[in-house]
What does this fold into?
Amino acid sequence: MRLRWFLVIFCMVSSAFAQSIPRLYAGADLKVGAKLIADNQCVACHQRKVGGDGSALYKPTGRINTLGLLRGMVEQCNTELNLGLFPDEVNSIAATLNRDHYRFK
Ligand code: HEC
It folds into this structure.
């Protein structure tokens, strides 16, 4: 019984590592995050703002410089733009942005 729990937890932890999800974002789904980013016009709007592929807007050394602030920023966009995202969706988006752009530990 105990061994089974150990295996379950071990698998969860190792798959989180394999997808490079920081512990603060536990439970994030990077595929869901990528889909939500595509579905909510995030990039289209950012491109209008900064041009190129829009990624210049993500500034890891700027104001948003921790995992907590990054997720807070996604939550702020969610609220301001009235996207109606659930907390776990915000979490997945933050994890995806972190993997692709910010790379905070
Ligand atoms: C209607 C336009 C628009 C949409 C849609 C939008 N954003 Fe933004 N976003 C902005 C603007 C403008 C800024 C820059 C704000 C600033 O610097 O004060 C920004 C900034 C950000 C930042 C902070 C960048 C940094 O490093 O400083 C993040 C993260 C972000 N947006 C994520 C998202 C996500 C995720 C979505 C989709 C769920 C989204 N945004 C949708 C306009 C938009």
Notes: The radius of gyration is 15 Å.
